[in-house]
Amino acid sequence: MKKLNKLIAFTFFRSFLPTFFVVMFILLMQFIWLYIDDLAGKGLSWFTIIQLMFYFSASIIPLALPLSILLSSIMTFGNLGETYELVAAKAAGISIWQIFRPMLFVMVGLSFFAFFTSNILIPKANLKKSALLYDIKQQKPSVMVSDGVFYNGIEGITMRVGRKDKKTEQLYDIIIYDNRGGAPHSTVIVSERGHITMSEDKRFMFLTLFNGARYEEMDRQASYERSFPHTTYTFSEEKIIFDMYDFKLNRTDEALFKDNYQMLNILQLNHAIDSLNSYNQSKNDNLKKSLDQFFHLNDTMYGHLKSKATKVDVKYYDLIKNVTPATQDFVLNSALNEARSAKGYIDYSISDLGGIENLVIRHDIEWHRKFTLSVACLVMFFIGAPFGTIIRKGGFGMPVVISVILYIIFHILTITGEKMAKTQSSTPISGMWLAIMVLIPVGFFLTYQAANDSGLFDKSAWVKLVHRITKWRNKNKTA
Asked: Is the pTM higher than 0.85?
């Protein structure tokens, strides 16, 4: 029995590890295509790019882990069924539950790893990923000078290079329009050749020009007896200095992003939810007290106001019929202004309370997400393992097709449930656990079929069933 347990565990990990890394790589490619516009042309170091990809890799583990477990389970038990090793085990008196037993311990371990990933690893990775990605988006593109193309990446500078020698890095036929001083007219600099160098700390860029001329238009001033329209002078060598501070990747303090619900673990989410609920309750109490100065509200009428009801039944009292018309106008205008003020405050409060409730829901969704991944690992095993036992097919053929179809169903249900929770069409608990609740009966059904040697995917069994149904229908027609 111990040898069988080792065989099953070894076969599973032999399929699981490469499958997991392949799926991670495929999903990581999606990230690269999604953010390629933000990364290209920024002059980022390889370390920065690898660092960002590592943070994204942690955040896509919830997508890769269930699919890898599902595919590996089908392949493992499909191979054992295809080579009749499961048949031999059952003939020796080993039940399907005993065959699954070693993998249950493995699944429990993977579930704990999934919980650690969701609760600890992903929040930290999201925090660092968000901060680094924000800094990359804020960074200006690196200086990329192309032949015959105007470059305006440096503020106040437009530059064109006729030709660039790739070996010597020399620039030829240079034209520069310098408007850094904010003058209405640009200073035009032309040069036969030049080259670019950087300071040791990469803070300044030096553009050295040779054999050129500088042309600058002058503003007319009334105090001058004689006005000069422009100045021109030639040079054999001139150096222009550019401050490259904006082109350097400056890191933002990560504390600015740490309060986002995606960056919190379970304890922090519980604390944030309690704080938001307390704040929401205090806003409700303040709203009720503020409205008491305008009119008295019972609980039913206050509920109507919160639900944006257009009409509230009140009694009309003719209190101003005995005063002068001028006083009546004054009283009515004052009442109208007070009513408008109360309505504006109510509308603002309803919007504010709605925003807080939506934020509480987002925190609740994230709280349930910490546990759904762990349970999804167990559910995917109890779908994949009996499925492989029934179909008795290993390799990358049929198991891959079946795994992708089942995972797409799981992913669609997950996204649908999360969207229902976000739009308040359902509660966070029912929305986030929708996919699990749908797939658990499927897992029980497949496990029951595998334990009873079901011919669920046996072609001859389905043909016999169709013949029986046809025979029964023909018998009823003749009767």
From this structure: no
